[in-house]
Amino acid sequence: MIVTMKKLFLFLIAVLSVAAVSAQETDYSVFADKFNFIVCNDLGRNGYYDQKPIAELMGQMSEDGVDPEFVAALGDIHHFNGVQSVTDPLWMTNYELIYSHPELMLDWFPILGNHEYRGNTQACIDYSQVSRRWEMPARYYTKVYRDGDMAIRLVWIDTTPMMNKYRSQPDEYPDASCQDWQRQLTWLDSVLTAEREDWVVVMGHHPIFADTGKDVSERQDMQQTVNPVLKRHDVDFYINGHIHNFQHIRRKDSRIDYVTNSSASLSRTNVNPVEGTVFCSGAPGFSVVSATKDTLALRMINRQGRVIHEVIRTKK
After folding, report:
1. Would you say the C-alpha torsion 26, 12, 281, 223 has a positive or negative sign?
2. d(C-alpha 274, C-alpha 251), whole Å
3. How far is 257 from 237, CA to CA, in rounded Å?
4. Local confidence band at 25 (pLDDT 50, 70, 90 cut-offs)
5. Containing H/E element for 150?
6. C-alpha distance from residue 177 to each of 161, 166, 258, 261 (Å)
7. Over residues 12-35, mean pLDDT
């Protein structure tokens, strides 16, 4: 037993050391003097696979130079069947004890993924009254941040009820059919109509355009419901999770940058280009969004702490 515990201890030290060395290779000057926030999703694996090393990397990069304002958590924080209550042990094993780095003790703004919809979705909102850093005011919401003369509007949407696939399976996704998704679309349209900020970023769990082994109906529903609203208001980024790999798509019929953010635990390495693909990678990781008055950038970070792709928009 002593030998086994010693090996485990040395293994954990090695994992954290690799994350530390890799993170130091990143050029942190790209994050300096900018409004930064982290985007992560598809997390909940009780620390297994790459979840814990990536969590440590997120914390170290935050300490070393990223200095994020908050973390946007885009669903599936809890694989596989969501949570049952605010006291479910998964809150500890999937979240609190995994993202324990001091620099990650800041606001986390989550949305629901399809796996949360397998459980008690209201508990995910109510957990805001339990955890200091978990801030989920509603199923969908918007926030505006200002940094000097820069203003950015962020919109979190609840995509699972947008899809007939989930609404038609009340036994597996009991809350999906209970949501008024058309009302949410009306709200989204009104928020984007009123926006006057320099940048607009909309975030949801499901993709609109992406290479995926998921049902084609998921993308078709998103293309028919959400995408027309985003295009009408010419948002800058639509960022999603769900697919467990990195993808960046620019379509000829849209000026939006569609970004799929990879899993921060277990990725799916088989990813192929589709119409409009600028970049794709099966690496696990997370992204950092950086904003100034003139530039909005998203940088994809792999498990080794390296920037593997940049999505950059500038004011004309």
Report:
1. negative
2. 10
3. 5
4. low
5. strand 150-156
6. 7, 7, 27, 26
7. 66
Spell out the residues 6+ positions from residue 252 whose beta carbon is closer than 8 angstroms to its own: 276
Measuring CA to CA, which residue among 181, 141, 147, 155 is closest to residue 238?
155
Strand partners, 152: 145, 199
pLDDT over 90 for what percent of the chain? 90
Burial zone of 147 (CB within 10 Å; 0-12 exposed, 13-18 middle, 19+ buried): middle
List all residues 6 or more positions away from 179 whose beta carbon is below 8 Å from its beta carbon.
139, 158, 161
How far is residue 101's CA from residue 44's CA, in Å, rounded to a whole number? 17
| Band (27; pLDDT cuts 50, 70, 90) | confident
CB 32 within 8 A of CB 66: no
Paired tokens of 316: 């004309």
For residues 110 and 134, the answer to whether their CB atoms sit within 8 Å is: yes
Question: What whole-number distance in Å separates Cα of residue 284 and Cα of residue 204?
Answer: 18
Nearest residue to 73 (alpha-carbon basis) of 32, 106, 97: 106
User: Rounded to an integer, what distance in angstroms lies between the CA atom of residue 297 and that of residue 9?
Assistant: 38
| DSSP-assigned beta bridge partners for residue 277 | 249
Tokens 């960046």 -> residue: 248
Token pair of 52 as six digits: 């814990």
Determine the Cα–Cα distance for residues 175 and 118; give it in Å rounded to an integer.
8
Among 17-21, 199-203, 231-235, 307-311, name the one with the lowest average pLDDT. Answer: 17-21
Contacts of 128 (CB under 8 A, 6+ apart): 134, 135, 136, 137
CA 115/CA 82 separation, integer angstroms: 5
- 226: part of which helix (H) or strand (E)? helix 216-233
State how far the Cα of 186 lies from the Cα of 201, in Å rounded to an integer: 17
Alpha-carbon distance 307 to 300, whole Å? 6
Q: Please state, rounded to an integer, the average pLDDT across all residues of the chain.
A: 93
DSSP 8-state class, residue 253: T
